[in-house]
Design goal:
The chain is an alpha/beta fold and 188 residues long. The protein has a single domain (2-187), classed as Purple Acid Phosphatase, chain A, domain 2. The protein is built from five helices and ten strands, in the order βαβαβαααβββββββ. Helix 2 (44-52) crosses helix 5 (82-89). The protein is globular and about 50 Å long. The two termini are 22 Å apart. The structure holds manganese (II) ion (MN). The site of manganese (II) ion (MN) has 6 residues, from loops.
């Protein structure tokens, strides 16, 4: 199966639309590793696009701010579609499944407590990733695309659609091929 992975959309609807258009040809299902919204700015269109795409998603730190007591004004604003807010509220912090015999976990930030660390490619923490007992770990949060194998674990970070921080500043996504056990980064 080909999993089209996006993350850190931060309400960027045109970039999300472009990635989803690619996935119509490049992927079988859609996953999102969190930060669909941007702090107190709920985006019904961004959430709606993912919901209608049947996406499997986890919450990011920005989504959690919006869903927290501090986000009450943002949640009750006029432009907020109840259906989209309910979908976002129903997401968990972690998703784990087995596809084509490979165990895959998706979280937004770090798989380790306190879960908010920014784990870029050179972080020594990745030496411990085999201890998670998964074959593939999908993360977001750093806004930097990364496909790296640490030990026997493949780590896939699609980068950010809404606020890219790598040198060329294009929004990025990943396509994870679960049969091959590999992933490629694409740009919109
Ligand atoms: Mn983010």
């Amino acid at each position: 199966m080909r999993i089209g992975v996006v993350s850190d959309v931060h309400g960027n609807v045109p970039a999300l639309e472009a990635a989803l258009a690619r996935f119509e040809h490049e992927a079988d299902v859609v996953w999102c590793a969190g930060d669909i919204v941007h702090e107190y700015r709920f985006s019904s269109p961004a959430v709606g696009l993912l919901r209608k795409a049947g996406a499997t998603a986890v919450l990011g730190n920005h989504d959690m701010v919006l869903l927290s007591p501090a986000g009450v004004n943002a949640r009750t604003a006029e432009h907020v579609e109840a259906e989209e807010l309910a979908w976002l509220s129903g997401l968990g912090l972690s998703h784990e499944t087995v596809v084509d015999g490979r165990r895959i976990r998706m979280v937004h930030g770090s798989p380790w407590d306190p879960y908010g660390d920014y784990l870029r490619a050179h972080n020594p923490k990745w030496k411990e990733v085999d201890g998670l007992g998964v074959d593939i770990l999908v993360v977001g949060h750093t806004h930097e695309p990364m496909v790296e194998r640490f030990g026997r674990t493949l780590v896939v970070n699609p980068g950010s659609l809404g606020e890219p921080r790598q040198a060329d500043r294009r929004g990025s996504y990943a396509v994870l091929d679960t049969e091959a056990g590999d992933a490629e980064i694409g740009y919109v």
